[in-house]
């Protein structure tokens, strides 16, 4: 994954978490989907190169990713129908972002092991981000922690959100937008400091 692809993928993930419901259970499902789609897309790309059908590889990868997304949604409808309804079209955003940012912006050819590493590491990072982001919104916005369970979701009530009404704002889309901006600012600050340290020769 090139630096440009990584930046676009990061923006797409942030946008995904803004429109997603602010519940931990939704963040966990989206995190698993991000990892599954990235792994499947990387393997499909390697397969296309192996059998030398590069001319139609993008079509095959896109079709495979969309098919897998539909399959995930159908499984969710059986296992956790309420979560499937809550996420709705949001489930298809990782499919588009994964394909456009990774497989269209990065045309370099790598060995499978190396490509898995450079693709799965960012995917795992953003999967963790989606869980942490959703957890914060779940606690602050609703005063709960929601865990996935068969045919339902387990909800642990931590406090009454009406008693801390200022925090319920983070359960809304505008609140998610502000929270996402804070996370993005922290990421950019950390990246800038890391680059300064790297240029200074302290780390290599």
Folded structure, characterized:
This protein has 204 residues and is mainly alpha-helical. Strand 1 and strand 2 (152-157) form a beta hairpin. It is built from 7 helices and 2 strands. Helix content is 71%, strand content 6%. The model has no long low-confidence stretch (mean pLDDT 82). It starts with a helix and ends in a 5-residue tail after the last helix.
Biggest sheet character:
2 strands, antiparallel
**Sheet/helix structural class:** mainly alpha
In whole angstroms, the N-to-C terminal distance is 20 Å
Q: Tell me, what's the shape?
A: flat
As laid out across the biggest beta sheet, the strand order is: 1-2
Integer average pLDDT: 82
Tell how many strands the DSSP assignment holds: 2
- Gyration radius (Cα, Å) is 19 Å
Strand content: 5-15%
Number of helices: 7
> Which H/E pattern describes the elements?
HHHHHHEEH
Model regions low in confidence, pLDDT < 50 over at least 5 residues: none
The percentage helix is over 70%
């Amino acid at each position: 994954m090139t630096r440009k692809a990584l930046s676009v993928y990061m923006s797409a993930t942030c946008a995904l978490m803004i429109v997603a419901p602010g519940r931990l259970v939704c963040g966990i499902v989206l995190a698993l989907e991000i990892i599954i789609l990235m792994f499947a897309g990387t393997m499909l790309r390697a397969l296309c190169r192996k059998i030398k059908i590069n001319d139609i590889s993008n079509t095959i990868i896109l079709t495979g990713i969309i098919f897998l997304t539909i399959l995930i949604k159908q499984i969710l409808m059986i296992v956790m129908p309420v979560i499937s309804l809550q996420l709705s079209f949001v489930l298809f955003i990782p499919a588009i972002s994964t394909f456009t940012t990774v497989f269209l912006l990065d045309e370099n050819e790598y060995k499978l092991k190396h490509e898995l590493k450079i693709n799965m590491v960012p995917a795992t990072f953003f999967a963790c981000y989606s869980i942490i982001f959703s957890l914060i919104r779940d606690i602050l916005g609703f005063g709960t922690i929601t865990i996935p369970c068969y045919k339902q979701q387990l909800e642990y009530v931590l406090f009454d959100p009406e008693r801390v009404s200022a925090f319920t704002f983070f359960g809304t889309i505008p609140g998610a937008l502000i929270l996402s901006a804070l996370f993005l600012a922290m990421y950019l600050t950390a990246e800038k400091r890391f680059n300064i340290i790297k240029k200074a020769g302290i780390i290599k």
